[in-house]
Amino acid sequence: MLGTPKLCSTEWASNPHTAHSVVGFAIESPNKDDDTQWLTYWVVYGVFSIAEFFSDIFLSWFPFYYMLKCGFLLWCMAPSPSNGAEFLYHRIIRPFFLKHEAQLDSVVKDLKDKAAETADTITKEGEEKTIH
């Protein structure tokens, strides 16, 4: 178990080598099928990361959680047409997003408006402090 959390953590995703691999092998390749495979993987990985953020405190207490997580991520990355990312995206994520698309668009718009409003407020406060 020693080192397992680090081995299966998400820190490797921000590694420059990983970024080089994705850019070098997926984006810059003439074959666009691998682009779709990697984009699908990152969508699934993003949903998984959000779910894990809220549940990791409970899941980490289960024996072999990090090994199962590592296996899950490897299944999602498997270089086959029926890998985990494709399966999860087409069976769960895509139908969910299509069903709730209008609601999600509304939430995103609200967040965008609130972020713009907050940025304006901060800018005005900064200008007032520099004037005085």
UniProtKB/TrEMBL annotation:
Organism domain of life: Eukaryota
Swiss-Prot/TrEMBL keywords: Endoplasmic reticulum, Membrane, Sarcoplasmic reticulum, Transmembrane, Transmembrane helix
A GO cellular component entry from the record: sarcoplasmic reticulum membrane
Keyword Cell membrane appears in the UniProt entry: no
Functional summary from the UniProt entry: Plays an essential role in heart function and development by regulating the organization and function of the sarcoplasmic reticulum in cardiomyocytes.
Family indicated by similarity: Belongs to the DP1 family.
The protein, known as: Receptor expression-enhancing protein
Taxonomic lineage: Eukaryota, Metazoa, Chordata, Craniata, Vertebrata
